[in-house]
Write a structure and sequence with these properties.
- This protein is α/β, with parallel strands linked by helices.
- The protein has a single domain, classed as Glycoside hydrolase/deacetylase (TIM Barrel, Alpha-Beta Barrel), CATH 3.20.20.370.
- It is built from eleven helices and ten strands.
- The strands form two sheets. Strands 1, 2, 3, 8, 9 and 10 form a six-stranded parallel β-sheet that branches.
- Helix 9 packs parallel to helix 10.
């Protein structure tokens, strides 16, 4: 049990790099074009509600244009069996002068970085799929080193990681540690959210059950407690904050009710509640999504008042947990009121 319940948010900041194998820029244009506006609004909400969050950012986004990024590509690049997944082949299709905002977001990262209580973490350099066939541990290490280096180039010391598509690879945990990335978002323990490849993840039955679990209690309350092994802190995810869907609008109140019930349980039971989503999810139906987020954050403030529920980003959670492990209180984290 923690000393206080903890509310954390992590955002998988990837833009088109996260969906290019299945969606063209044109097909996903509305979401991508609306992301910058959505991020500004999210930042304003986080600032007003004093929300601490981790922005797990794809390294390729740290640049303004193709010419800049080509100087920082990892020396050992990924070789997926499925070439459609390869981001470097996709990058090669861009004109030499390309500077599209669907793929480069240096100014947005700077905006986030200078917002109080926000952590810039990594979503790997190239949105690296850690379980897909063809990739290797050596390639992953080179990719992660590149992400760290571009972070340093932008005065950002990266300490937290979110594995793309939640492909949490146990064999890569020690690589993260060797590169001083000590805080990892792990997956919920329920079978619906078990680590899977993209192909397995897209099985219609699993997708359907996960969707249903958004609105109805299929998997139970997804509450967690950080855990540590050899200096690595795993910070389990609880729930994806699925974007508003007009065709499912009659069910949307159930989604918010489910999240708020889980938050309340975490606050009362002194556990962790970890909400996550992609900023581009808010690129369409932005007003609806922001209204729902504001409702969730207002509930957090009520729980903070009633139960001393605390907002922390992944680095803050991990650092506190390691500190108190060192003081031989492994089942407690002291969270400032």
């Amino acid at each position: 049990m923690l000393k206080n319940g903890i509310f954390t948010i992590s955002l998988d900041f990837e833009l088109h790099w996260g969906v290019f194998p299945s969606k063209s820029v044109e097909a996903y244009a509305k979401n991508l074009e609306g992301t910058q506006h959505a991020i500004e609004k999210i930042i304003n909400l986080f600032t007003n509600k004093q929300i601490h969050a981790t922005w797990a950012t794809v390294g390729l986004l740290f640049f303004d244009n193709k010419k800049e990024v080509e100087k920082w590509l990892p020396s050992l690049q990924v070789t997926y069996d499925n070439p459609q997944l390869n981001p470097y082949d996709f990058l090669a299709t861009f004109p030499a002068t390309y500077q599209g905002k669907s793929h480069f977001a240096k100014a947005l990262i700077e905006r986030i970085k200078h917002t109080p209580n926000q952590e810039i973490g990594t979503h790997t350099f190239s949105h690296f799929y850690c379980l897909e066939k063809g990739q290797t541990s050596e390639q992953f290490k080179a990719d992660l080193q590149a992400a760290i280096e571009v972070g340093k180039l932008n005065n950002t010391d990266i300490k937290s990681i979110v594995f793309p598509r939640n492909q949490f690879n146990e064999n890569y945990v020690n690589i993260c540690k060797d590169l001083n990335i000590n805080y990892l978002r792990s997956n919920p323990t329920n079978f619906l959210y078990k680590t899977r490849t993209k192909t397995a993840e897209n099985h219609w039955l699993l997708r359907g059950l996960r969707l249903l679990d958004t609105y109805l209690n299929i998997s139970g309350k997804q509450l967690g407690v950080p855990s540590t092994d050899n200096g690595i802190v795993r910070i389990p995810a609880s729930r994806m904050f699925r974007p508003f869907h007009p065709k499912l609008k009659v069910l949307e109140p159930l989604k918010i009710k489910r999240i708020k019930k889980e938050m309340t349980a975490a606050a009362q039971q002194k556990k962790l509640y970890h909400l996550w989503w992609h900023p581009h999810n808010f690129g369409t139906n932005t007003a609806k999504n922001l209204s729902q987020l504001e409702e969730v954050l207002a509930h957090f403030l009520q729980l903070k008042n009633d139960y001393n529920f605390q907002s922390q980003n992944m680095q803050e959670i991990g650092a506190a947990y390691l500190d108190h492990k060192a003081t031989k209180t492994p089942r407690q984290i002291l969270v400032s009121a």
